[in-house]
């Protein structure tokens, strides 16, 4: 079985797909990834074949001019060409997240099964989103479908998502949706196990006092004074701070020894040792903090992040402060709320119900799709 896994986006989009690829390889499958160019090296570090698609999803390096952003139309055409080439010889194609303008069309062109996988129920079609997606992409998608000998479609988002999408979320954190007209299969969250040790400097900081607060926005932007706001709020609660630089380049605000700035770290290990996690509300970070039993303060900015903030509040394992309302005072109050013993206890108890087999389940389901296709072609029965 040869499987192509296609994904565009930031690390939070790519990492779950690598988790599924690792599990597929355990089943004996040959796996190929189509990922943004700056994640090809990361995929190959896991001994996976990877090919570039789209543009690099990263901030410019110091002194590097910001590259012009291609139009949506150009990105769609690039997806058609790159995924078509990557799909050569593959038996199954999975497109992760809703921005898979080409993947289903290419699967159709190659005559292989296609699965659409989403990281949040907010990506499921609604009337407003359907209209917006058609206005943005319908003409260019159909131009490319015509180029590959395929008939036109009339609904981009529903075409991408299909009528049987997978939802790569944990049912305890994200109750199964009941969308009209769709059959949604919830696989569980796709979590890539991380065994990397924490850096010695971080270990020393953790061991030098009471558990600190983790503060970070991952690949999200942030205002120039965001670091000061985050650190001031943490200090107001009497706690130390671990500040994740992220793509916003957050850094310490003074020379005090109660704050440490870090780069990429093993969040699975770190979150289990902090008093609380302040983050942007990406699906991956929300699941990781929940699995670690850490109380959360979500600072949502856009996309599915307000949804995850609402789930954290509803479960009583955290609080939220919208980015537009973020201030030292609001964050201080939220940190005091989530470090209350009752919230800490709920967060720790909730960790025990979060699953970790979602990627393995998704890999098995892809293998089953291939077996069904082979049986249909040969006329055999399982």
Q: Main attributes?
A:
382 residues, Rossmann fold, 2 domains, six-stranded parallel beta sheet, 41% helix
Structure, explained:
By secondary structure, the chain is α/β, with parallel strands linked by helices. It folds into 2 domains: 2-192 and 356-378, Rossmann fold; 200-351, Rossmann fold (3-Layer(aba) Sandwich). The protein has 14 helices and 13 strands. The chain has helices at residues 11-26, 40-45, 72-86, 103-110, 127-147, 156-161, 200-207, 226-236, 267-270, 283-292, 305-314, 328-338, 341-351, 358-378, and strands spanning 2-7, 30-35, 49-52, 92-96, 114-118, 166-167, 185-186, 213-215, 241-244, 259-262, 276-279, 296-298, 318-320. The strands form 2 sheets. The chain has a 7-stranded parallel β-sheet, sandwiched between helices. It has a 6-stranded parallel β-sheet with strand order 10-9-8-11-12-13, with helices on both faces. Strand 1 (2-7), helix 1 and strand 2 (30-35) form a beta-alpha-beta unit. Helix 3 (72-86) packs parallel to helix 4, helix 3 crosses helix 5 (127-147) and helix 8 crosses helix 12. The protein is globular and about 65 Å long. The two termini are 16 Å apart. The mean pLDDT is 95.
């Amino acid at each position: 079985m040869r499987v192509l896994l296609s994904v565009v986006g930031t690390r939070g989009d790519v990492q779950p797909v690598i988790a599924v690829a690792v599990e597929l390889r355990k089943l004996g499958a040959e796996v190929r990834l189509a990922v943004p160019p700056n994640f090809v090296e990361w995929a190959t570090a896991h001994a996976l074949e990877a090919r570039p698609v789209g543009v690099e999803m990263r901030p410019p390096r110091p002194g590097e001019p910001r590259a012009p952003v291609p139009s949506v139309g150009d990105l769609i055409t690039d997806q058609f060409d790159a995924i078509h080439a990557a799909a050569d010889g593959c038996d199954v194609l999975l497109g992760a997240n809703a921005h898979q303008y080409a993947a289903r069309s290419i699967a159709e062109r190659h005559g292989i099964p296609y699965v659409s996988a989403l990281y949040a129920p907010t990506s499921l079609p609604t009337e407003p989103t359907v209209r917006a997606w058609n206005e943005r992409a319908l003409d260019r998608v159909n131009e490319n479908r015509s180029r590959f000998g395929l008939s036109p479609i009339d609904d981009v988002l529903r075409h991408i998502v299909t009528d049987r999408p997978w939802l790569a979320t944990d049912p305890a954190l994200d109750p199964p949706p009941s969308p009209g007209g769709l059959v949604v299969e919830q696989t569980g969250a796709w979590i890539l196990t991380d065994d990397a040790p924490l850096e010695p400097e971080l270990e020393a900081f953790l061991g030098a006092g009471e558990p600190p607060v983790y503060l970070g926005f991952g690949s999200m932007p942030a205002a120039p004074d965001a670091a000061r706001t985050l650190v001031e709020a943490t200090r107001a609660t009497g706690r130390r701070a671990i500040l994740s630089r992220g793509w916003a380049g957050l850094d310490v605000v003074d020379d005090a020894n109660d704050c440490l700035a870090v780069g990429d770290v093993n969040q699975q290990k770190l979150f289990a040792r902090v008093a609380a996690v302040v983050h942007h509300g990406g699906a991956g970070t929300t699941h990781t903090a929940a699995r670690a039993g850490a109380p959360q303060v979500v600072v949502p900015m856009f996309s599915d992040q307000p949804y995850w903030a609402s789930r954290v509040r509803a479960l009583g394992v955290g609080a939220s402060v919208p980015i537009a309302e973020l201030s030292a005072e609001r964050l201080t109050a939220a940190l005091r709320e989530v470090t209350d013993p009752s919230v800490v206890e709920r967060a720790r108890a909730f960790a025990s119900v979060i699953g970790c087999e979602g990627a393995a389940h998704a890999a098995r389901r892809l293998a089953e799709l291939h077996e069904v296709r082979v049986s249909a072609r040969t006329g055999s029965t399982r």
